[in-house]
Amino acid sequence: MIIDSRSHLPQLSDEAGVQRLPDIRPAARAGLGAVFLNTEANQDNQDWVTRSLAAVWHPCTQMKHHERMPLVPIARGKGAWLYDPAGNRYLDSISSWWVNLFGHANDDINRALKDQLDTLEHVMLAGCTHAPAVELAERLSALTQRTLGHAFFASDGASAVEIALKMSFHFWRNGGCADKREFVCLANSYHGETIGALGVTDVAIFKDAYDLLIRNAHVVASPAVAGVDAAVGAMRALFEQRASSLAAVIVEPLVQCAAGMAMYDASYLTRLRALCDEFDVHLIADEIAVGCGRTGTFFACEQAGVWPDFLCLSKGISGGYLPLSIVLTRDEIYTAFYDDDVTRGFLHSHSYTGNPLACRAALATLDLFDSANVLAENTRKAALLREALQPLTKHERVRNLREHGTIFAFDVDIDHQEAKRTFSRRFFANALQRELLMRPIGSTVYMMPPYVLRDDELLLLAQRTRDTLDATFAERVE
Ligand SMILES: *Cc1c(COP(=O)(O)O)cnc(C)c1O
Questions:
Q1: Of the residues 325, 356, 371, which one is the last residue of a structural domain?
Q2: Which residues constitute the domain of residue 447?
Q3: I need a labelling partner for 48 at 20 to 30 A (CA). Which of 5, 84, 186, 477 fits?
């Protein structure tokens, strides 16, 4: 059955100066994740796909889907583009899972890393210290006007979340309030996938299978769904009832990305901060996805005029180069662990904590923010993308086109169940044929491009996103 026709789509013009592309490659139907024409160059691609599927267990994937869903071997990257071994290119429209800020193989970050590589690749951060870690801690603290005076390093976002949760609990315990050991998260929240982080995550598909392993947090209405007033009211009601048992509330400031780019007003954060102060509950801001300029300010919390007690950073902080995460916290919290008694200290560690290469990549990333007017340029580019996406607002299947900073998203209304279930994978395959790397979240299509996208690339992204939507709706779904 044909689930939709393209006839209702607005006529796509070349007004943006972007050439309308013919379909470059036929759709992926050849099995084993193939998306490529059967040419010799593409045979190289196919070999990597076959070997990968035989040896690599890919993340966040039902591997059987690769019987039909393409797997894309990437040989190299430059700027916003990724290239496969056969020379096909793909615009990294989602910054490689939201991590890449200044493009692939960025000259400045490369130079800094090569220099660091010849100087010091790694040393443990317990008992030793090194310039990249010190400078990074100092510079991040300065970006919070020294409100968050200490930085604790780890490797991935989920471990930063674990650290913030443990620190909060341990802080209260050190202060004689061991009863404060429960956590609060928002509905549809996502804070990572280790067992502790899943406790404050509210995405069924990631946590249901592990339910018996998880200590679940209180889940409170999200302002992105319930509205700010209702969400603040729900939080107040929980605090009034249980504040003496609550260690911390954790939120994704401004945008709940994994929930499908669910956005809410900054006033919620201002009011949540006030509630946390009133009831003595820590506020943890998980800025792993929204930090580093993504929402228009360096930290998303700046838009609410508040600072949390713990701020988690990862993803973009290393420019998308190396695994690095950081928990920034207030000196009052740091001081509560400072004692002659070893067990009152925070004994948490990871082997690669504060890795000099990763810290150096982060310093080079901060240099890029300093050297170019990145945030203002992003505002200008966002306006351009907004305009280029305008035709989508007239599309009868497109709902709720929204944006915050350099994040753009819309929901796609699909009535046919099977079409809806497979939409994300089919869109992904159709996007690849139009040189876009995109991964819708369910039926939410989003763009989170690297900051280095040129104006013509932004227009190309908008045009081909519309083409991809068009092609996906035109597909026959059994
Ligand atoms: C990605 C993400 C995490 C987890 O980070 P990992 O590095 O994938 O462990 C946590 N919180 C938010 C908001 C994220 O977007």
A1: 371
A2: 14-100+373-474
A3: 477
- Can you tell me the distance from the alpha carbon of 430 to that of 28, in angstroms, rounded to the nearest whole number? 9
Q: How many domains does the chain have?
A: 2
Distance CA 54, CA 122 (A): 33
* CA 5 / ligand 1 centre spacing (Å): 38
Task: Report the alpha-carbon distance of residue 90 to residue 213 in Å, rounded.
Answer: 39
Domain boundary among 346, 371, 396: 371
For residue 132, report the distance from its CA to the centre of ligand 1, in Å: 23
- Tell me, what CATH number does 183's domain have? 3.40.640.10
Are 227 and 263 a contacting pair, CB within 8 Å? no
Residue 69 resides in a domain: yes
Where the chain has pLDDT below 70, the residues are 1-38
**Which pLDDT value is given to residue 29?**
37
Distance 191 CA to ligand 1 centre (A): 6
Establish if 8 belongs to a structural domain. no
326-337 pLDDT, tens digit per residue, is: 999 999 999 999
pLDDT tens figures, 74-91: 999 999 999 999 999 999
Can you read off the two tokens belonging to residue 291? 């930090």
Answer whether residue 41 is part of any domain. yes
Tens-digit pLDDT profile for residues 309-323: 999 999 999 999 999
For residue 200, list its beta bridge partners. Answer: none
Using CA positions, which residue lies closest to atom 15 of ligand 1?
Answer: 289
